[in-house]
Amino acid sequence: MAFTVEPEIFDERKMRTRNKKHYRVSHWPIWIWVFFLAPGPMTFSLFAHGGSRGNLIWLGVVLVCTGIALLAGQLPGCEPAPYILRFNEDRPNPLYRKVCYSFAWNALLNFMLLNLIGLAVAVATGKWYLQQIYWKGYTPICVVVLLLGAFGLLPRVGKSTRGEGTERRYFYGAVWSITAAQTTLLVLWKTLPKNHTTDIVKLVIYSGVLVLMGTLSAYGKLPRTRPIQPGELIVAD
User: Fold this and answer.
1) Contact, 18 vs 237, CB < 8 A?
2) What is the C-alpha to C-alpha distance for residues 7 and 93, in angstroms, rounded to an integer?
3) In angstroms, how far is CA 100 from the centroid of its own chain?
4) Residue 188 in contact with residue 207, Cβ under 8 Å?
5) What is the torsion angle, in degrees rounded to the nearest 10, for the CA atoms of residue 215, residue 219, residue 221 and residue 226?
6) CB-side exposure of 79: number of CA atoms within 13 Å?
7) 3-class DSSP state for residue 161?
8) What residues have CB less than 8 Å from 183, skipping those under 6 apart?
9) What is the three-class DSSP state of 214?
């Protein structure tokens, strides 16, 4: 995102020193979804063939674990008070933020890459191998992404929170572009007939949405994709 983007000014942001209960609870579904998606091949089966007992059991595990973390204030956005008050402050990044954002990056990048590969293969060969691609490709990509997170090489998972004012725009840019593209692809998958022509249409539209939303994010045209200038007592969401 090496673009000239108008930053948010710190004194224009509403400051808060406590998170309201509804604010904390509203972030819980985000992390339920992130960790529910973690077993990728099982998630693929859910969308391709419908739910199973395994999906329900895993959902229950995720609800219990994230619910405990919510009550303990150990999920990003679910803390009793904002952890980051100054975007240029060199504070240690808590372990729960590193873990949560590492899994969030996996949920974003892994499914996006595998679907893109699956579409490209279907267009090139005229056959669908998406299930095989998920079974063989999901785990290696997941391991790589989580290792990058463990070494602090992904936005929002570093040792320090000093770069939060810029790093958050990379994260939300990915959320906007990938979520929009994945949702569009799901709609196309469910509504278009299954043939080679529609496979090409899906690939073109999927790639186009990624590029369009990514470009808008890069130029700071979407919420939370503008850099924030350092200042005193600014609050990160």
Assistant:
1) no
2) 23
3) 10
4) no
5) 130
6) 17
7) coil
8) none
9) helix
Closest CA to 30 of 69, 56, 57, 1: 69
- Which residues are CB-neighbours of 177 under 8 A, at least 6 positions away? 209, 210, 212, 213, 214, 217
Give the DSSP letter of residue 232: S
The token duo for 184 is 């569009």
CA torsion through residues 1, 24, 81, 75, sign: negative
What letter represents residue 210's amino acid? L
DSSP string of 63-126, one letter each residue: HHHHHHHHHTT-STT-SSS-S-S-TT---BPPHHHHHHHHHHHHHHHHHHHHHHHHHHHHHHHS
Residue 207 buriedness (CB in 10 A; 0-12 / 13-18 / 19+) = middle
| Global model pTM greater than 0.85 | yes
* pLDDT digits 0-9 by tens, 131-157: 999 999 999 999 999 999 999 999 999
Residue type, 223: P
Distance CA 209, CA 199 (A): 15
Nearest to 178 by CA among 119, 121, 110: 110
pLDDT digits (tens, 9 = 90+) for 14-29: 666 788 889 999 999 9
Q: What is the CA 214 to chain-centroid distance, rounded?
A: 13
Q: What is the pLDDT of residues 112-134, one digit of tens each?
A: 999 999 999 999 999 999 999 99
Tokens of 45: 């089966």
Residue where the block lists tokens 């958050």: 168
